[in-house]
Design brief:
This protein has 281 residues and is mostly helical. The protein has one domain. It is 76% helix and 1% strand. Helix 4 crosses helix 5 and helix 5 packs antiparallel against helix 10. The radius of gyration is 18 Å and the shape is globular.
Length: 281
């Protein structure tokens, strides 16, 4: 029961990231400045947690470059996307893209994969294309949609790189801390968030990102890869519900249908089936 409760709390934190970012942009925050504050506050919380646990950050490790670049792509793509996407749809595009990116990374790495994961990834990809396809009365604005695709690809790459991390908490704290350096520079170029927007940016960085990621890393060994993947499919649903209840966002049928296709593809990719190798056997 404790594991279920803590996992549910973590998924709520992940969904809250979308709600907080969307609310912050609606409150007038510059998306670049919002992302910078999120990085800085997250870096402070994660670094404090890492040192409290007696972990070194190893900031000079050359392998940090890829992780830092991927994290920057995720944070700023995420914030820029929410200028024109509802919270729930943004979460859907993000997590659908993450699944497809990690599938592609596994293929390129020559991994042995379940057949259903290939089918599910193709279905999810079709749903994302349908959702973003330019048309009269477009379902999702192309610019913000592409920014969220960048965020999803970046987070997928970050997750793939993170599989090699010896200590996920210390690694993430170091990546956030190094990414906060350009964040400080960008804050000098863009207007600081103020009032409610500043509070939302700090909450997103320190609580739903910093503490949320720390709790997630603590739960992962108990959940295992399969249950962890299934748990994350609830995030877009939670964000959609939260967007309706808290932000007054009501998606139409033109959004719900491709959204259902994306979620179906992700769900199919998580079903246990026979594995196939890169040689097709």
């Amino acid at each position: 029961m404790r594991l279920i409760l803590l996992t549910s709390l973590t998924m709520i934190a992940f969904a809250a990231n979308s709600l907080l970012n969307r609310a912050g942009i609606l409150a007038g925050a510059d998306p670049v400045a919002f992302g910078a504050v999120r990085l800085i506050s997250g870096a402070l919380v994660l670094s404090a947690l890492a040192f409290w646990n007696g972990k070194g950050l190893h900031l000079t490790d050359r392998t940090r470059i890829g992780g830092v670049l991927a994290l920057l792509g995720y944070i700023y793509g995420f914030s820029l996307a929410y200028r024109g996407i509802d919270a729930g749809i943004g979460a859907l595009i993000l997590f659908g893209t993450v699944q497809v990116t990690m599938f592609a990374g596994a293929i390129l790495g020559g991994e042995t994969l379940p057949r259903n994961r290939a089918i599910g990834a193709l279905i999810a990809s079709f749903g994302l294309v349908w959702l973003l396809w330019p048309s009269e009365g477009a379902k999702v604005a192309l610019g913000p949609g592409l920014f969220m695709l960048v965020a999803g690809i970046s987070w997928g790459v970050y997750s793939l790189l993170g599989r090699k991390a010896g200590d996920p908490l210390a690694t993430t704290a170091a990546n956030f801390l190094l990414s906060a350096v350009p964040g400080l520079f960008l804050l000098g170029l863009f207007q600081w968030p103020s009032g409610a927007a500043l509070f939302l940016a700090i909450a997103s960085g320190a609580v739903t990102s910093g503490l949320g990621y720390a709790l997630w890393y603590a739960l992962l060994p108990q959940l295992g890869a399969g249950r962890a993947a299934v748990a994350q499919t609830t995030v877009p649903v939670l964000a959609l519900v939260g967007g309706v209840m808290l932000l007054g966002e009501v998606p139409g049928l033109g959004i719900l249908l491709p959204a259902a296709v994306v979620l179906a593809g992700v769900a199919i990719s998580l079903l246990p089936q026979r594995k196939i190798g890169s040689n097709g056997s």
